[in-house]
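Practice problem 4.
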């Protein structure tokens, strides 16, 4: 989330970014006007990419190059010029800071599937940083999954003997060849007995996060919200990070599992916008007593068994549902549910278009007209439903239901919702 903030300092508007039109009660954002979007795109390309990259990379301008890398990632921008500049950066990695190396790895992972495998492999062998090693390993694993597993396992043993850090343990699990786990019964986790008496927001996703997921909401009485026509309320939502990193890496895809929902807020960040967001917390990000809403747990320490106590019996051995627990243990924070003022035209060639990715949050589509007024908002739909049922806290449960190459549709779970609603 922090990297959203860096672009603000360069943006041409010095006045408040967002405002509400009190007379019409219409949400407005200056950054979504046609002129603002055109100016911002021109600035990011001409200044933060072309101008910063025009200077030779050195200690003094490493910060400018960091901004250029972020702009490439945000815009999903690549051409021969920028690819050459990335190659130059990779040739200088030994002289660069850990922070720059992480940014370079993130941008490279986001834009190039295999092209920099040799350079990333070299850094993986050289680095003494667990965080950088993990990011390198994930790139190499994606580029060459068959041959990379043995190499990565060997390097972990030689470079980090005795290191039991959470990140390395997760990486070891990911490179291990293990039997495919079938998704446990969804009706067990949709049941009124799961998180009984709580509002539960389900974000049903594909494991391939290039496709949009779906939000449905269960009320504290155990029934699912329906609209005025008697149909189950549902709205599309993207759980894909612009990086497409796995769940346990900062700025990676939204982790599966249980998160605590604890109220609403309005962001001042440039690309989130003025629509109310839902404040979420991962395990470890907040204390057990706050996560469980149980004052008897004050001074308790987090454990996997404590988290597992929330789960139906059929889900306790399903590894995917523990991603939020491990992401929190890794130190991930600020995974919230929000709207978006990002120009969807950045991603017009992507399968998730017109949805816009985030830096690991649950991002709900919003449409803005050329004058900066909000036309429609999936995020506002969610907020309105929660307000209508009087819910300002509860849980969010993210589940990858399968790996189909299409957006999640309500028809895929409607029968199950009917079953648990009987």
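Answer key:
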């Amino acid at each position: 989330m922090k990297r959203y903030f860096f672009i603000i300092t360069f943006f041409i508007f010095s006045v408040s970014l967002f405002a509400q039109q009190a007379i019409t009660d219409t949400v407005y954002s200056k950054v979504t006007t046609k002129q603002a979007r055109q100016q911002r795109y021109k600035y990011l390309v001409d200044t933060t990419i072309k101008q910063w990259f025009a200077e030779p990379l050195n200690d003094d301008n490493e910060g400018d190059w960091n901004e250029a890398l972020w702009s490439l990632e945000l815009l999903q921008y690549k051409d021969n010029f920028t690819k050459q500049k990335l190659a130059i950066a990779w040739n200088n990695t030994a002289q660069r800071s850990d922070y720059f190396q992480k940014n370079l790895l993130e941008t490279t992972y986001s834009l190039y599937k295999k092209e920099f495998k040799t350079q990333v492999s070299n850094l993986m062998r050289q680095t003494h940083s667990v965080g950088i090693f993990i990011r390198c390993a994930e790139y190499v694993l994606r580029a060459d999954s068959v041959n990379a597993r043995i190499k990565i396992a060997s390097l972990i043993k030689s470079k980090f003997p005795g290191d039991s850090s959470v990140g390395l343990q997760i990486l070891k699990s990911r490179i291990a060849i293990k039997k495919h786990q079938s998704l446990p019964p969804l009706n067990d986790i949709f049941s009124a007995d799961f998180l009984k008496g709580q509002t539960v927001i389900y974000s049903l996703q594909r494991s391939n996060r290039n496709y949009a997921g779906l939000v449905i909401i269960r009320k504290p009485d155990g029934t699912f919200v329906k609209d005025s026509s008697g149909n189950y309320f549902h709205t599309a939502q993207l759980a894909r990070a612009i990086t497409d990193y796995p769940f346990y890496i900062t700025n990676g895809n939204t982790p599966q599992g249980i998160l605590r929902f604890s109220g609403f807020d309005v962001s001042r960040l440039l690309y989130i916008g003025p629509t109310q967001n839902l404040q979420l917390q991962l395990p470890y990000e907040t204390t057990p007593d706050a996560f469980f809403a149980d004052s008897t747990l004050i001074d308790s320490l987090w454990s996997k068994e404590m988290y597992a106590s929330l789960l139906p019996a059929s889900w306790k051995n399903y590894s995917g549902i523990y991603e939020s627990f491990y992401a929190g243990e890794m130190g991930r924070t600020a995974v919230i549910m929000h709207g978006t003022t990002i120009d969807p035209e950045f991603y017009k060639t992507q399968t998730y278009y017109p949805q816009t990715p985030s830096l690991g949050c649950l991002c709900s589509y919003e449409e803005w007209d050329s004058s900066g007024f909000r036309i429609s908002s999936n995020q506002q739909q969610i907020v309105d439903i929660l307000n209508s049922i009087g819910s300002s806290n509860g849980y969010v449960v993210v589940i990858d239901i399968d790996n189909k190459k299409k957006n999640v549709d309500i028809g895929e779970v409607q029968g199950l919702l009917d079953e648990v609603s009987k």
